[in-house]
Amino acid sequence: MNTRMRRAAVAVAAGAMAVSLAACGSAKEAGDTTKESSGAAKGDAIKVGLLLPENQTARYEKFDKPLIEKKVAELTGGKGKVVYANAKQDATTQNSQVDTMITNKVDVLIVDAVDSKAIAGSVKKAKDAGIPVIAYDRLAEGPIDAYTSFDNEEVGKVQGKALLEALGDKAKDGQIVMMNGSVTDPNAKLFKSGAHSVLDGKVNVGKEYDTVEWKPENANTNMAAALSALGKDKVIGVYSANDGMAGGIITALKAAGVTPLPPVTGQDAELAGVQRIVAGEQFMSVYKPYAPEAEAAAKMAVALAKGEKLDGVTTSTVDSPTTKGVASVLIPVVSLTKGNINDTVVKDGVYSVAEICTDKYAAACAALGLK
């Protein structure tokens, strides 16, 4: 894709985000399915509980938390308060954190579930206590009131298409390894489904793994095992569901002496992932603009805390395994490669050129025109 096309794609995605956050007429059905808070209408002095799942992935502490805090403050004239906890990838801890939020009488709860099934009982507890619950980034089970995330099946499709593009007419000359995410994360299933819908029949999948807890070290171990089983000269590409795992995969490839490195996908546009793309070690990532997702969650939270409906916030509905017609906002994603770093993460202020182009990457950045 040339630069002009990439810029156009980013512009279209940005426009879609704006529509998804601003549209109101199309959300009537979703709003009608949303229960109002059982409490009386509140002013701006609300308390928003925020539970994020882990700190292995850089995005949660660097982007999601501060963005949600900023938007809640903006929507409440600085009177709204966000009470925060991180489960550090432990579902039992997160369930205890929900109990604490209930005890602290938050007005609304935003939950990014460690385990979408394990959280269901806690979601019901919160609802029984009159606290509306918003599923953030991952579609939690239980009686949730609203949901915001990215189009997660599309994420997998974007990754799969990028891998096919990188392989070109050599797509069947060897085997690829698929490194999917954790089975406890419902998004991982959607990424996997989307990727398979693009890749099946066009590549040979030699090994496929569901990576425990999304941990880079587990992806590293799996990749080493795949190279041993398939032969390092037979692996022509790697589908990695996110950037953290891509780092572990690339370390395993280097340790095995694989050269040149095969194309490796990713997701989240983590700084280390972007730097690997600059250096030519990772082929692509999926840029998921966190600001519109966080802002949608904050808008939902403030509305529900005040006992208002979501007609003016949500744009669609989704079904979870336990709840039908959940009012939702789904944010578009962008394929991030060497050619559009300036037009995505730099332009949007996610990273500065100085942050990306440290001494180690200065020469590669200069070659790309990043300055």
Most strands sheet: 7 strands, mixed
Number of helices: 14
Average pLDDT, rounded to a whole number, is 90
**Distance between the amino and carboxyl termini:** 22 Å
Radius of gyration of CA atoms, rounded to a whole number? 21 Å
Strand content: 15-25%
The poorly predicted ranges are 1-40
Helix share of residues? Answer: 40-55%
User: Shape, please?
Assistant: globular
Tally of DSSP β-strands: 12
List the helices and strands in order: HHEHEHEHEEHEHEHEHHEHEEEHHH
What do these coordinates show?
The chain is of the alpha/beta class and 371 residues long. 44% of the residues lie in helices and 16% in strands. The protein contains 14 helices and 12 strands. Strands 2-1-3-4-5-11-10 form a 7-stranded mixed beta sheet, with helices on both faces. A 3-stranded parallel beta sheet has the order 7-6-8, sandwiched between helices. Strands 9-12 form a two-stranded antiparallel ribbon. The longest helix has 20 residues, at 3-22. Mean pLDDT is 90; it is low at 1-40.
